[in-house]
Write a structure and sequence with these properties.
The complex is a heterodimer of chains A (784) and B (170). Chain A is of the alpha+beta class and 784 residues long. Chain A is built from 17 helices and 30 strands. In chain A, the strands form 7 sheets. Chain A has a 7-stranded mixed beta sheet, sandwiched between helices. Chain A is globular and about 75 Å long. With 170 residues, chain B is α+β, with helices and mostly antiparallel strands. Chain B folds into 2 domains: 3-79, Beta-grasp domain (Ubiquitin-like (UB roll)); 88-164, DNA polymerase, domain 1. Chain B contains 5 helices and 6 strands. In chain B, strands 2-1-5-3-4 form a 5-stranded mixed beta sheet, with helices on both faces. In chain B, helix 2 (88-96) packs across helix 5 (142-155). Chain B is globular, with a radius of gyration of 17 Å. Chain B starts with a strand and ends with a strand. Classes of the chains: A alpha+beta (784), B alpha+beta (170). Chains A and B meet through helix 1, helix 15 and strand 29 of A and helix 2, helix 3, helix 4, helix 5 and strand 6 of B. Strand 29 (728-733) of chain A pairs parallel with strand 6 (168-169) of chain B, so a sheet runs across the interface.
């Protein structure tokens, strides 16, 4: 079914073809039924199970050398001097580069160009890149790297985000230490209520922990430019930043997406892209860079750690009167996507509830902690832990259950958000909660029967059931889908139809990054549905076609799916016009189905392959979602968002109160996806997203001490294994959003948001503890 | 010191020259023998992405020195399929949606293959224990469990039925 060959395609020929690597991304072709709403197999699945799929770290070129990065050991220091003399003497070394070798502008950044490609006179976080080495063998490069002498003057690191907001920190960047402050003001700022609950909550720094480390291969081109094969989430934003740093026109920097081993936000910022290109241009050789796990922890941004102070006021029935909150997000050393994360935490800060009076202030600040940016849930995760914890406190204060308090306040279609925006499509918050609450509960532990692997501590055999208590908790969340705040968010797609060996074959070309979520499958399905063909090829994603935007904000099926549908419609219109001429019919009486054009009037048919003959029909479409607008910088009012995604979880946990060990027994989830484009992939997103939320609840934290990462390895940074992740009960709702292609709603992020608060609520229910910080550690439970 | 390593990989006699003593079996396979199926995700034996058979026993190739493989038999994920026909474990991973980004897939496929060679119809706790050394960040593991159950039922249709599936989903 899968055809790993890459037949020549005129639209992709370049003058650099001779220097193409030996192991590269390939065209993916399947010829099967399977349109929108079905679950055909991924076109890359067979390659992946065989170990033949070309991930970025698998790329190989006959002439390639290896690049490595020297990073700062200090979170904050001045650089007095850098001496590379010794490193250059190591046999096998091809180049040693510092900031003076950056030919263009030594700055990059997703929203603000504040980050040096290579540090100049100051380093602002531990792990900041300082110098690069290329050598014949990676170990040679590493040894030479250790012979670079950097003279640092160590400074005190700024590590406390709240202190930065209070103005109590030295200046880290010329424009000030506040990256963004976004207030939200709605209704009466002085509203009072008979029931008030307050809390301060903290969220630790989570890592995306994608399994495929940062990697890529840069190949110098005869035109003085460079071809970069890389694992990323957004080819064109990489291209623009790399070109600026290299001082090259954008068309001399060409990117092709290589196999991406997961992303989850961590590949939205540059990592090794400019570095590999620099080394390739200086050495004249293809340069491969692959981070190891430790370097990966230093080499990408993380989820913002947060402190959140909340006050909820409600009437005696628990109906919310006001929410006031202060949210402090630690952006670390560079801005990355902090401004947009601030916007999400602020605008979604009260959760999926109707609240008449809102006063939220959210700050994102610079510190000397590791830079933070995009991770699945993007600002909504931190807020959800706080507002859901508050809803449970409110339920207790009012004397109702956790589901009931949420039902009484649940947002619905027509509700007004704290930004003043009216929710104009389905918002089934109450329905999602009712569904998870109605699921049967797993049976209690029977100590006589239980398999030890199913108790807290598992195979460690730490309990036979004594000291184990059970709890049930709920969480529901809201996430904006697509890019917000007036961003010109669009995608581009080219669809081509031709006859190949008597069969009609369609080809899809976009720059939209497949990072594991299954976009390649969904794009094939859309073409099948729109054009009535079976055989669909997906070309490697690259920058020879227009921008597709980022694979983030749960937007790619919506956006590039929308673009592929638009391009397919343009192809369809041309085919129907051709068939109308052939049949002497009117195009509006014709439809495409089963590789033919059929007349709905008289049943006349013309075979598509015959109609096309030796010709191809190809159309390119650029597609946008409806416009959004910036929020007011003082009041936070404005129609900032395109669409909202909702998910609810019920968690059941067993807690060993003596050892503080938690086992999540079961997760139930209900999510509205608008339209399940590929039901199997939708479940995969819900299961995988829930697992990452579980990780934040009870395991995952990059531990920082005085600006230094203490656990940069999979030995010390724990992510859920198959023993940690429980079985799930899942309900998928399909309430079409009339504004979106096929009625779909972005899927990827909502399940990550609500699973964390649900699990912590369950631990609270089991133990009676307040638990105001995630991840919950054993000592938080044992009090030791 | 530079060494030469002779090793049988997927039934083929292979030789690598100029092997640096610090090189792992994983580096040997990926960078010298052109077999990138085993993945490098942690280099500490924590993630299982580089799982291969060494003389029929599962190992993390990142924790085995290349020199230790001298004269021994290695079987990698590339050696599981019979030509164009996938191994039942591989086929089940494709069908159940157990593959997302796919970086963990080669290691999980080899680990599941080993489990089903040892246990006809493993129960869910047995599957979980056997795969506990393989990290996956995309799937939440549910569809991987489904894949192993499906492969087990096909390989041993008359075998002892495993315990009922734990979850439900639609």
């Amino acid at each position: 079914m899968t055809n790993p060959s890459n037949p020549s395609n005129p639209s992709r020929t370049r003058d650099t073809a001779l220097s193409a690597p030996a192991r590269v991304p390939t065209e993916l072709t399947t010829s099967v039924p399977g349109g929108v709403g079905s679950s055909p197999h991924r076109p890359d699945a067979a390659l992946k199970v065989r170990g033949e799929f070309a991930f970025a770290s698998d790329l190989w070129h006959e002439d390639m050398v290896w690049g490595v990065t020297l990073r700062s050991p200090h979170p904050h220091a001045l650089i007095r001097s850098i001496d590379i003399t010794d490193a250059l003497t190591v046999p096998g070394v091809r180049a040693v580069l510092t900031h003076t070798d950056v030919p263009g502008t030594n700055r990059y950044g997703l929203e603000r160009p504040d980050q040096p490609v290579l540090a100049e006179d100051v380093v602002r976080y531990q792990g900041e890149p300082v110098a690069l080495v290329a050598a014949d063998h990676p170990e040679t490069a590493r040894r030479a790297m250790r012979r670079i002498a950097v003279d640092y003057q160590v400074l005190d690191p700024v590590v406390d985000a709240e202190a930065v907001v209070a103005g109590a920190a030295p200046l880290l960047h010329p424009g000030g230490n506040i990256v963004r402050h976004q207030p939200i003001r709605r209704g009466d700022p002085d509203a009072t209520a008979p029931v008030v609950v307050r809390g301060t909550y903290r969220v630790g720094m989570q890592d995306q922990a994608f399994l495929g480390p940062e990697s890529g291969l840069a190949v110098p081109a005869p035109d003085g430019g460079v071809d970069l094969y890389v694992a990323t989430q957004w080819l064109h934003v990489d291209q623009r930043q790399v070109a600026i740093a290299l001082g090259l026109p954008v068309d001399r920097v060409r990117l092709t997406l290589s196999g991406v081993g997961g992303a989850f936000g961590g590949r939205e910022d540059l990592s090794m892209q400019v570095h590999a290109c620099l080394l390739a241009l200086y050495t004249g050789r293809p340069v491969k860079m692959v981070y190891n796990r430790q370097e990966s922890f230093y080499g990408h941004v993380h989820r913002h750690p947060a402190t959140l102070r909340y006050e909820h006021g409600a009437d005696r029935d628990g109906r919310l009167v006001y929410v006031r909150a202060e949210i402090f997000l630690d952006g670390g050393a560079y801005a990355s996507s902090t401004p947009a994360v601030v916007a999400n935490a602020a605008t979604l800060g009260v959760g999926p509830y109707e609240v008449p009076n809102v006063a939220v202030d959210c700050w994102g600040v610079y510190t000397n902690n590791p830079p933070c940016g995009a991770m699945r849930g993007f600002g909504a995760v931190q807020a959800a832990f706080a507002y859901e914890s508050q809803m449970d406190r409110l339920a207790e204060a009012v004397g109702v259950g956790p589901v009931e308090i949420r039902l009484r306040n649940a947002m619905r279609r027509g509700s007004t958000l704290p930004t003043g925006q009216v929710v104009d499509s389905a918002a089934p918050v109450a329905e999602l909660l009712r569904r998870v609450a109605a699921k049967p509960l797993p049976p209690p532990v029977d100590p006589a029967e239980v398999d030890l692997r199913q108790l807290p501590g598992g195979v460690a055999n730490t309990t036979h059931g004594e000291g184990v208590v059970r709890g049930v908790g709920y969480g529901v969340g809201i996430k904006n889908i697509c890019f917000s705040e007036g961003f010109d968010d669009f995608s581009t797609a080219r669809v081509r139809v031709e006859a190949v060996g008597g069969e009609v074959a369609a080809t899809v070309h976009t720059a939209a990054c497949e990072v594991g979520q299954g976009l390649v499958t969904v794009l094939q399905q859309i073409v099948r549905t729109e054009l009535g063909v079976r055989r669909v090829s997906v070309l490697p994603m690259d920058t020879s076609i227009g921008d597709a935007g980022s694979t983030s904000a749960s937007r790619q099926t919506y956006m590039t799916g929308g673009a592929v549908r638009a391009a397919s419609h343009a192809v369809r219109d041309r085919l129907l016009a051709m068939a109308a001429a052939e049949l002497g019919a009117t195009a509006t009486d014709l439809v495409l189905a089963g590789g033919a054009v059929l007349s709905t009037r008289d049943g006349a048919a013309v075979d598509l392959a015959a109609l096309l003959g030796a010709d191809a029909v190809e159309r390119t479409a650029e597609w946008r979602h409806r416009a959004t607008e910036a929020v007011d910088p003082v009041t936070g009012q404005g129609n900032a968002h395109v669409q909202y995604g909702f998910a609810a979880h019920r968690a059941v946990v067993d807690v060993d109160t003596e050892l503080g060990l938690v086992r999540v027994v079961e997760l139930a989830c209900a999510q509205d996806v608008g339209r399940a484009m590929n039901p199997q992939a939708v479940l995969g997103q819900i299961q995988g997203g829930s697992a990452q939320g579980l990780g934040l609840a009870v395991m995952e934290e990059i531990q920082i001490s005085a600006g230094r990462i203490r656990n940069p390895s999979f030995t010390d940074y724990l992510i859920p294994t198959v023993l940690d992740m429980p079985p799930m009960r899942i309900d998928v709702l399909e309430l079409a959003d009339e504004h979106a292609p096929y009625g779909l709603r972005g899927v990827g992020e909502p399940p990550t948001i609500s699973s964390t608060p649900a699990i912590v609520a369950a631990i609270r229910a089991a133990t009676g503890l307040a638990l105001t910080r995630v991840p919950v550690r054993p000592e938080h439970i044992t009090g030791t | 010191m530079i060494v030469r390593v002779n090793v049988t990989v997927n039934g083929e006699q292979c030789q690598a020259d100029d092997v640096w003593p610090g090189e792992s079996l994983l580096y040997l396979l990926r960078e010298r023998l052109g077999l990138p199926g085993a993945k490098n995700a942690c280099e500490q034996g924590e993630c299982g992405s580089c799982t291969v058979y060494l003389d029929g026993v599962l190992v993390c190739a990142c924790l085995v020195a290349a020199g230790q493989a001298q004269g021994r038999q290695v079987r990698t994920v590339e050696g599981l399929a019979d030509g164009a026909e996938l191994d039942p474990v591989q086929q089940a991973f494709v069908e159940t949606g157990a593959v997302q980004c796919g970086f963990c897939t080669p290691g999980l496929v080899v680990a599941a293959h080993d489990l089903l060679n040892r246990v006809d119809r493993p129960t869910d706790p047995e599957i979980r224990e056997a795969l506990a050394g393989n990290l996956c960040r995309c799937t939440g593991y549910e569809k991987i469990l489904e894949a192993v159950r499906l492969a087990a039922s096909r390989r041993n249709p008359g075998g002892r039925p495993g315990e009922a599936a734990e979850g439900e989903s639609r």
